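Re: cytidine-5'-triphosphate structure - here you go.
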Amino acid sequence: MQNNKEWQVAYSVIEQLENAGFEAVIVGGAVRDTILGRPAHDVDVATNAMPDEVKSVFNHTVDIGIQHGTVLVIDPAGSVEVTTYRTDGEYTDHRRPEEVQFVRSLKEDLQRRDFTMNAIAMRRDGSFVDFYGGRQDIEAGVIRAVGDAQKRFSEDALRMLRAVRFSAQLGFLIESETLKAMQDKANNISWIARERIKAELDKLWVGKDVYNGIRKLEESNLVNYLNGTFQAKDWYEFNTQDKLLGWAYFAVLQGEHWREVLGEYRLSNKEMAFVKAVLEALKALKNGWTNIDYFLYTEQELEAACYFAELRQLDVQMPQQSIQEIQTMLPIRHKRELIVNGTDLLKWSGKKGGPWVKEALQAMLEAVVNGELQNDQQQIKNWIEHDYFKQE
Ligand SMILES: Nc1ccn([C@@H]2O[C@H](COP(=O)(O)OP(=O)(O)OP(=O)(O)O)[C@@H](O)[C@H]2O)c(=O)n1
């Protein structure tokens, strides 16, 4: 049993449903993580009450997925998702309401779930409802589909990638029938929305055993139907438990096609910017970084480039000091620290504005960052007049 606020809200909601004569339990990842001794935050409640009945028990609810049977219950202490027991194992948002079958039986609800470890329910008193040997599989470190594996993956092909992601997160094996079904159905992953695939890969990179996950991708043949190259041997030593570093390293492994490949996974602009910076920094590392590189890239980006250079055993010039120390010694850390701006330049030169202003500011920035020029009004003025304009 866990004791944070989310759990307390869930217990209180379950109690209120029980007092109204219904059955309600905690299900899914929260139960699995509790058994694993891991903190679980996303606490989902399942109940035999129909969605309208759930709404009648509580003063404040929001229909967040009412056609799929999910109601958000707003309790004074917090909120929790309450889902009516159902039989369909379809997990996309494209289901038509008539495809969703609500039932009163917990056993049937657990039966349509993906893996035995995710098909355990927990009552308010801390006891478990475990029809499919979920706890035993968790104990043994096994990912096993509930019942007919082929059927589970036909209902939702993303589940195959979930199996892979769990194997990376937990270091678990995939039971042989389940793996075989994955091999049979691997091509169906092509039909899954890219955003859903990305969300699983996000979690895979954060896993403590990414290598295990990529091996499962290979063994299941899923690699043949995903965008980009995945080879377990490249991931043997990768261990960052960081989503962004996962994507950046994946990009390194894609070579010149990285942009195309990552574009397919719909990374956010922020994520793409990070990946791009790391790749540029890695390229620059070949001849060793100059002050400009330490200025341009963040400590995290530079650290990532060093880490990847090591993993790939690249022939590069590694920094001799800590990146943080080098960065602290830079004459300036941000563009805005430059004492001179475009207006000053126009005034001094008496020239009309144009692209030259940007170029001159850039040259000035580089000279200051490189320590060739002091960040001082008079010195910069002299430099612009005597060196910069002359050489033009
Ligand atoms: N394709 C899916 C997705 C989910 N589930 C079921 O719905 C539960 C909740 O799913 P979700 O919140 O997406 O994942 P978790 O298993 O909770 O894992 P995590 O929170 O680590 O992503 C799962 O445990 C599982 O019982 C499923 O059967 N098939």
